[in-house]
Structures are given as C-alpha cells and as structure tokens.
Design a protein that fits this description.
- This protein is of the alpha+beta class.
- 42% of the residues lie in helices and 22% in strands.
- It has six helices and seven strands; from the N terminus they run αααββααβββββα.
- Strands 3-4-7 form a three-stranded antiparallel sheet. A two-stranded antiparallel ribbon has the order 1-2. Strands 5-6 form a two-stranded antiparallel sheet.
C-alpha cells in the first residue's frame, strides 16, 4: 500500500503540469473543504489576449485530473481525489508557514514578501498607501520548462 501511495503522490505532482502553466493561484483556497467543494482545482477557460488575436486555451478540469491520476496509479477516483487534496493541502500549509518546497525536476514553491509602498488611485491620482503582503509563488524547474517547449 505504501508503494501505491508513493506512486499516487508522484503522479499527482507530475500531472500538476497543465494547471501550473497558468499559474499557482487557482490552487489557493482558504480551507481544504472549500477548495474541494469549489472548482479551484479546475483550470478555467481562459482567453489569452494578444495584440493580434485572442486564443482559447484547452481546459483540464478537476474531474479529468482525478481520472488521470486514477488511471495511472490504479487507485479509485475517490482515493485519487483524496491524494490530490492531500498533496495540495500540504503544499498550501507549508508555503503559508514560510517554508520552501522544492521538488527536483518539477519546481519550487515559496512565499514571497512584497514591501509596503505608496501607489496612486488610478481614478483620482491621489497617493495611497499599499500594505505589505505575502504571496505564494512557483518557479518551474529547467526540466519542466524544457518539457513545456
């Protein structure tokens, strides 16, 4: 069973490629239950605007993602969904705690800090104070980038 769980985690991580191309933001939710109940795991249809034209990106939804994990690991869809939820939950918890998660050959998640700064209200031009904040970021490994090109 340990081998199957390890294989499930590896498959979950390697199948995260499609959503991560669009960014890490869709995976951030305030709670584990909220992220499962909503469609945060799905990559929403997104139009990529360019100066010349607009293209539609292919959608890889949560149900397809879970089915792909189940097919590759031989696990049930329910177990695959739980494995995916567990991996994403661990990533969220550790990054939110300020830890850096590095998966060789895949990429690195980390928490980045944005210092407080003065901005301008675009409507009035009036200066406003923007608070400091933390934001998760993902950096793809060289191997991952080569696979995408």
């Amino acid at each position: 069973m340990k081998t199957r769980a390890s294989a499930a985690i590896i498959v979950v991580i390697t199948t995260l490629v499609a959503p991560l191309v669009d960014g890490f933001a869709p995976f951030l939710a305030t709670s584990h239950r909220e992220s499962i109940e909503s469609s945060h795991y799905a990559v929403a249809k997104k139009k990529t605007a360019t100066k010349k034209d607009t293209d539609e990106q292919e959608v890889f939804r949560k149900s397809e993602f879970v089915a792909s994990i189940a097919e590759k690991t031989g696990m049930t869809k329910t177990a695959s969904e739980q494995a995916l939820a567990a991996v994403l939950d661990v990533i969220q918890e550790q990054v939110a705690a300020g830890k850096k998660i590095s998966l060789v050959g895949f990429g690195t998640w980390k928490l980045t800090h944005r210092a407080a700064r003065t901005g301008r209200n675009p409507k009035t031009g009036e200066p406003i104070q923007i608070q400091a904040s933390n934001s998760p970021s993902f950096s793809a490994s060289k191997t991952f980038k080569e696979k995408c090109n």
